[in-house]
Amino acid sequence: MAIVKPFKGIRPPKELVEQVESRPYDVLDSEEARVEAGDNEKSLYHIIKPEIDFPEGTSEYDPRVYDKAVENFKKFRSNGWLVQDSKEQYYIYAQTSCLPANGGKEKTQYGLVVGAYSGDYQTGVIKKHELTRRDKEEDRMKHVRINNANIEPVFFAYPDNATLDALIMKYAATEPEYDFVAPIDGFRHQLWVVGNDEDIKLITEEFAKMPALYIADGHHRSAAAALVGAEKAAQNPNHKGDEEYNYFMAVCFQASQLTVLDYNRVVKDLNGNTSEQFLEKLAKNFTVEEKGAEEYRPQHAHEFSLYLDGKWYALNAKPGTYNDADPIGVLDVDISSRLILQDILEIGDLRSSQRIDFVGGLRGLGELKRRVDSGEMRAALALYPVSMKQIMDIADSGNIMPPKATWFEPKLRSGLVIHELV
């Protein structure tokens, strides 16, 4: 049973939303945030990337940076750039995009912004499919602790629900509170406020029927929020369990609406092999077919695209190199990690190796080609994307996906709603 609750969101006035909203903190570096914020003092980057208020080169982990986040959060509220709603309510957040994965056709996905129960993370009702790193958890924990708020949401999926879909479509037929096209991604973002008591009750009850929620994107933010909630509970001698700190902000989308893009790899060397030797070793476990200079994208599961020496190759995994009955062993990210990155290139820990980098599918195959042609990288490997069903099956089985397996798009915009922990 998944527990969610409405909350009094802190959000920008309608006329300021486009000045406040931003990309998530973890999809750009400090200098990119500095450029995007420019001279806009209302940009949320001053709260989620406050190192931009210090000289270039200041570490985002500098204690002064965390203090600056608090100072700026207070400033935004005192200036009326962020205002708290007077009533506990839910919100509906829609993203409209045109992605190659959808055939370039316009597609809208609708999410419910809820207070997710931290205890569900601890007990496994909120399911994860990726490992988290303690250093990244601690960074987000500091940010949540010091601001006493979830400034940015996490990204959940839930099993399709006809009742919730009908309710969402009812609101989608009305004028939204926010409606804008983001300047960087070019996607449309809309938000509706669900303040009707009967609708609020319905949302809470429908989530209570769900056996699980699934983290799609934001594993570190989820872990950090749940850990801060547990900390606050332990520190409160009068803890009852219904305090606001027991919940953290999540945007929950129906699983069938989500688009998972490929997450591709570029490598700096061939581990001492010549190109001919590398292709020869690949032929042990893959059928290798040269495709020429024109970009070639994997057409189905267990097919990979290799870019090497100005040419594209199709690599099809041979029978017996994967296990269809194993939720992990059937994944292309596992096949490529085992049979190419580890066995041939001897790249062990994908999280720490300096010989490999990862490119989200939104950048396209052209980015892989560019990085190899520039001489920065020696070869590139494009993967067929995992499905949402595979992600949910892995989470249900209690397994963890290999690193850098999923790339969700569009990304959630930050600053539309903030959840305070008091």
Which range does the strand content fall in? 15-25%
The helicity comes to 25-40%
Task: Give start-end ranges of low-pLDDT stretches.
Answer: none
> Helical segment tally?
13
How is this structure best summarized?
The protein is α+β, with helices and mostly antiparallel strands and about 425 residues long.
What does this protein look like?
The chain is of the alpha+beta class. Helix content is 31%, strand content 24%. The chain is built from 13 helices and 21 strands. The chain has helices at 17-20, 30-37, 45-48, 63-78, 118-123, 134-147, 162-172, 197-208, 219-235, 275-282, 332-342, 364-373, 388-397, and strands at 4-5, 10-11, 83-84, 90-98, 106-117, 126-127, 149-150, 154-158, 178-181, 188-194, 213-217, 247-254, 260-261, 263-267, 286-292, 303-308, 311-317, 356-360, 379-382, 407-408, 419-420. Strands 1, 4, 5, 6, 8, 9, 10, 11 and 12 form a nine-stranded mixed sheet that branches. A six-stranded antiparallel sheet has the order 15-17-16-19-14-18, sandwiched between helices. A two-stranded antiparallel sheet has the order 2-3. Strand 16 and strand 17 (311-317) form a beta hairpin. Helix 4 packs parallel to helix 6 (134-147) and helix 6 (134-147) packs across helix 9. The longest helix is centred in the middle third of the chain and has 17 residues, at 219-235.
